[in-house]
Amino acid sequence: MMTEVEVLDATPFVVITIDPEGTILYVNRAAARGMGRAPEELVGTSLFAQFPAHATAMRERVRRTISTRQQQDMESLMPLADGRRPLFQARHCPILDADGRVTAVQIIAWEASPRRAGDADDGMWAVVTDELSMTHRRVHALLENAAMVISVYDPDMSIRYLNRVLEGRALSDAIGQRPLAWLVERDRPVFQAAFERVLVDRAVTECEVEGVSERHWFLRLAPLIHDGAVRQVLGCAIDVTERKRLEQQLARREKLASLGTMARGVAHDFNNLLTVVLGNVGLGRLRARSGGDVQAVFEDIELAARRAAELCEAMMTYGATAEPVAELGELNQVIEELLPLSRVRTRAGLELRCGLAPDLPMVACNRVPLGQIVLNLVNNAADALGDGAGTISVSSELVGLGEVSGDFLPETPAPGPYVRFRVADTGPGLTAADRLRIFDPFFSTKPDGHGLGLPVVLGIVSSHHGAISVESAPGVGTVMTVLLPARDRAAVAAARQAAPRREGTVLVVDDEAAVRAMLRSLLHEAGYRVIDVDSGDAALAHLHAEAAAIDLVILDVNMPERDGYGTLRELRRRHRDLPVLLSSGRQVSLPEGDPFAGSLPKPYIPEILLEVVAARIASRAASAAAPSP
């Protein structure tokens, strides 16, 4: 079925719509042909300027139409682009708004026959003009009363038509303008890219943008093609501000409702870990009294403590957007350490199969987030199997990007070597709908929640420039595949072998006495001289007294009164090349242009802590020994 606009373009009658000043708002193809120009070239120009010899009579006819609000007839010899001057009969019809005001005038014209039209011709003329007038009025009413903003753009993005006020701009001011200035700065490239896709691909394109008035718009752009080329672009915009507000409100409610589930899951896991720690403390005491071996007890306590640290890291990952600390990890080692802590260990009837490739490269992801990936995926597989029997297969191997297939999130990874970690289960599998939602925050196919789950895994994988995919179907189980960028093990080993001897003086600054005591003992056992203070002011006072004796500062970020960042700023006034390690359980923001500042994440893993301390002290010594340029 033809649209009303297409009907107007297909008719042989001349149809022109002008505003009260004579500016052309619409012109059909027949009228444009008669004037020898394309329709888009005529829109926005003055009709009177097209026919200067008849301008006075035309203005008077338009004035009468507006003042009487009744149609006016006129006939005249009109010059056409082909050189002819035929006799035209024209009818001027007022277009009224809801208040009865004339907002536009529609002109419908017909080239009279060489002989004067008779009564029959006059009757046909009346019917035709009435039908065309009614059609155009319907189109005009549709545009003016549409529940959306309708616009027409030239290929250079300038506005040719706008059916209503948008972003506070008057209609008269909008014509000829580009809409980019009406959008917030971050969304201007979004609109521009969508507009360019319409011109290049000749396809309907959609985008969502925010205006400077803080209103949100869903916009659909479509090409208007004539003679094989995109002549203009049609835009339809819907105000979705209220929808966005309701979505945000709903998201907040869902988040608050889910915090209880998340808290119960975390508390449950922490309670289990505390049971392991306290139970092993009691067991260690008994063995110590009887002279038994307590090494295994300490190892179990350490594993439980690391798992607790991972839960803390998961809580901080929830909602965090900072870049991760650039460290390396050994996937196989993390798998072997953490599998005994997974829920597979507590489920009867579950068979665990491991196929870990030996001598894998290290991955660009440190132990804590690696552990979150491993435990979340393995526990998720165990939960999928429930209380029944089944098999969970865990594997790792080195692959190239060409050796993998599937749909990866957040996007297909860049070419290069990857370590692939895969967890497969023989559970009931996922429906297509569930498969699309499993990475949504708080979505679960289980009645109870456990930690932060798969959304945390996706966040970790994404922030470490990796990718994850899921393959599943009802009745065939689920396979989760994680790709993490591989790093050369030989280069890492060489760097570690080149680590210097552990000697020097370390100033520990932390308001927690237990943390200071642990660091003092650990660093002293490793061969360092240790000085510890409980505040930033105390650290500055000590440095003022004997700065030359200090080789490194371990500085807690979160302290009362003067925090770590403030202490570092004051410290740098006097000691620009003193190595400082900012320490926190959260992401540390290192100051720009400070090569002697680094980070040390909490909780501390002794091997990593000692390695970082030794490297920082050695780096300072090497800089001091280097000859000046």
Q: So, CATH architecture of the largest domain?
A: 2-Layer Sandwich
Secondary-structure class: alpha+beta
Tally the structural domains: 4
Provide the low-confidence segments as ranges: 114-121, 319-326
Explain the overall architecture.
- The chain is α+β, with helices and mostly antiparallel strands and 629 residues long.
- It is 41% helix and 23% strand.
- The strands form 4 sheets. Strands 11, 12, 13, 14, 15 and 16 form a 6-stranded mixed sheet that branches. It has a 5-stranded antiparallel sheet with strand order 2-1-5-4-3, sandwiched between helices.
- Strand 19, helix 18 (564-571) and strand 20 form a beta-alpha-beta unit.
- It is elongated.
- The relative contact order is 0.05.
- The model is unreliable at 114-121 and 319-326 (pLDDT under 50).
Pick out its properties.
629 residues; alpha+beta; Beta-Lactamase; Heat Shock Protein 90; five-stranded antiparallel beta sheet
Provide a compact summary of the structure.
This protein has 19 helices and 21 strands. It is α+β, with helices and mostly antiparallel strands and 629 residues long.
Per-chain topology:
Blueprint: H1 4-10, E1 14-18, E2 24-27, H2 29-35, H3 39-42, H4 47-50, H5 55-68, E3 72-77, E4 87-96, E5 102-111, H6 119-145, E6 149-153, E7 159-162, H7 171-174, H8 188-201, E8 205-210, E9 216-226, E10 229-239, H9 241-290, H10 295-317, H11 331-338, E11 350-356, E12 362-363, H12 367-385, E13 390-400, E14 417-425, H13 432-437, H14 453-463, E15 467-473, E16 477-487, H15 489-497, E17 505-509, H16 513-525, E18 529-533, H17 536-546, E19 552-556, H18 564-571, E20 580-584, E21 597-601, H19 606-625
Parallel strand pairs: 11-13, 17-18, 17-19, 19-20, 20-21
Antiparallel strand pairs: 1-2, 1-5, 3-4, 4-5, 6-7, 6-10, 8-9, 9-10, 12-16, 13-14, 14-16, 15-16
Helix pairs in contact: 9-10, 10-12, 11-12, 12-14, 17-18
